[in-house]
Specification:
The radius of gyration is 18 Å and the shape is elongated. The longest helix has 17 residues. By secondary structure, the chain is mainly alpha-helical. It has two domains: 64 residues, no CATH class; 87 residues, no CATH class. Helix 5 packs across helix 7 and helix 5 packs antiparallel against helix 9.
Length: 168
């Protein structure tokens, strides 16, 4: 059991990000909820924590996140998914998932060379699978983001777009 008796908002925020965020985000590319009630349940943990901090009692959730320089957990899952897609497409991780992404021939599409084909799905199991879940978002990224030479550059470009954690 872990407990802190401090009321220091900065210390508690750092402890939450260090100890609780990893638990809430564990394996998010493998399992990311698509039902609203599950998203709400996961987000409730962060809502509850931020509401209990000194000076944040009467603020709306979005304002608390801005004040504490936090992102919603749903947003953080999206950034994690995009980071994993970047690593798979650029050969930075050793996985068989690269076979699940079909890159569209660039001669007939606009934008970057990594446009992904989104297959037609008839079941929820495949509709919300990782590769289908991130295809639309990944296809809408600008050229400069997708063609980043390194992962850190990719994350920096995402933050310029407002898609990175701690961008506020």
């Amino acid at each position: 059991m872990f407990s802190l008796t401090s009321r220091d908002r900065v210390l508690l925020n750092k402890a939450f990000c260090t100890y609780v965020h990893p638990i809430l985000e564990y394996c998010s590319p493998v399992w990311s909820p698509h039902f609203k009630y599950l998203i709400t349940k996961i987000e409730h943990v962060q809502r509850y924590f931020t509401k209990r901090l000194k000076g944040c009692w009467n603020m709306p959730y979005e304002q608390r996140l801005n004040t504490l320089c936090l992102e919603s957990l749903e947003h953080r899952r999206l950034v994690t998914d995009l980071t994993v897609v970047y690593q798979i497409l650029h050969g930075h991780c050793d996985t068989q998932l690269d076979a699940t992404f079909c890159i569209i021939d660039n001669s007939r599409t606009r934008g970057h060379a990594y446009k992904l084909l989104k297959p037609h799905c008839t079941t929820d199991a495949t509709k919300y699978f990782f590769s289908n879940r991130v295809t639309s978002t990944c296809n809408n990224l600008p050229d400069m983001v997708v063609h980043s030479p390194t992962l850190s550059t990719f994350k920096r470009h995402l933050s310029v777009l407002g898609l990175s954690c701690h961008s506020q």
